[in-house]
Amino acid sequence: MSKTTGIGILGAQFAGKFHTEMWRVIPNAEVVAVADLSEKAREGYLKEYGPMKMYEDIDGLLGDPNVEVIDICVPNFLHAPIAIKAMEAGKHVICEKPFATTLEDGQKVVDVQKKTGQKYFYAEDWIFAPALVKAEKLLNEGGIGKPLFFKGKECHNGSHSPFAKTIKYCGGGSMIHVGIHAIGYFLHLLGMPEKVTGCCNGGYEDNFVHKDFEGEDWALAVLHYPGGQKALVEGNYITTGGMNDIMEVYGTDGLIRVDLTFGSPLSVFSKQGISYAVEKAEFTQGWTKPAVNEFESLGYKDELSHFLQCIREDVPQVKSTTAEAGFNVLKIIDAIYRSHREQRTVVL
Ligand SMILES: NC(=O)c1ccc[n+]([C@@H]2O[C@H](COP(=O)([O-])OP(=O)(O)OC[C@H]3O[C@@H](n4cnc5c(N)ncnc54)[C@H](O)[C@@H]3O)[C@@H](O)[C@H]2O)c1
């Protein structure tokens, strides 16, 4: 085994940068190269993180013998084709959500992973967020009795990425882009639902706020599980004041509430505002709850550390991060959209 594992990041903007920051504090891994089509993004990355081997596209990373793992941080529609290309070239893959933008593409990724035997990691950070890991332990020890009803949401004021505006590039709207975290976490806790009921805005003029988004800017879904448990999932782009990530569980003997983004132990009152409080907050004057170790609280560090351990030590992969699991999350989202379109509950 090489002393450190060489990571090649594809995509040098928002996700590529916070992955870089996490890799820098994880032992035995090193970002050895980065690729991005945009010269501006490459320059911005170099300015922020110092000298780095830079390529324009995936082929540069695939041809680099020091790159063992491709960490995919490019827009959604590229996730499947890039993952396939990387695995066929003998690289392991870490892929940001969503798994793919169509079921057809998703199936191809599952097939290629099986055929090549390369490791594939579906990067759902909520599964590794320390507060959600703790909640899972408390649920498993029976701390709130039998869990009956789950609620999970990620909401903010709209994706900054131009690719998120078009279904062809993103796969949908706020449900596939942000509601997806709660779906991945509930898959981890509860397995596959047996049916789903979805209700979404219809995009463009039918949206509440984002009339230029082809996909919905507000979406809700009820996931119905065998045995009667239910989960309510929400993903919206109409939330002001900063990104809001909440998970709640109601049990026969208690309840659990996790606030991933406003649960900071730090409170600040500032007349003029501070440099940063929380992702997507519009301004920071007055009272804020500035995030402490934001990326670690959201799970990215423990997530990437686990993937690295699977690669280096061949430890078993958390099952809700496999290609099959990523594909299952996509199947649930597809069923939510179908349920909305057909105005009926969809059986999976
Ligand atoms: N887990 C999370 O909470 C989380 C948070 C943010 C983003 N993401 C995911 O990360 C991915 C990237 O999001 P982002 O916000 O960084 O997007 P972005 O639009 O800010 O950046 C994407 C970058 O990819 C580059 N790019 C596009 N096509 C490329 C290609 N063919 N080859 C090389 N580079 C290319 C663009 O030039 C751009 O610099 C998305 O799929 C998003 O869903 C996940």
Explained architecture:
With 348 residues, this protein is α/β, with parallel strands linked by helices. The chain folds into two domains: 5-124 and 300-304, Rossmann fold (3-Layer(aba) Sandwich); 127-298 and 330-347, Dihydrodipicolinate Reductase, domain 2. The chain has helices at 14-24, 39-49, 58-62, 79-88, 103-116, 130-140, 167-170, 174-190, 294-297, 300-313, 323-342; strands at residues 5-10, 29-35, 53-55, 69-72, 92-96, 120-123, 147-155, 195-200, 218-224, 230-236, 244-251, 254-259, 268-270, 286-288, 346-347. The protein has a seven-stranded mixed sheet with strand order 12-11-7-10-9-8-15. Strands 3-2-1-4-5-6 form a six-stranded parallel sheet, sandwiched between helices. It has a two-stranded antiparallel ribbon with strand order 13-14. It starts with a strand and ends with a strand. Bound molecules: nicotinamide-adenine-dinucleotide. Nicotinamide-adenine-dinucleotide binds next to helix 1. Residues 10-16, 35-38, 41, 57-58, 73-76, 78, 96-97, 125, 161, 163 line the site of nicotinamide-adenine-dinucleotide.
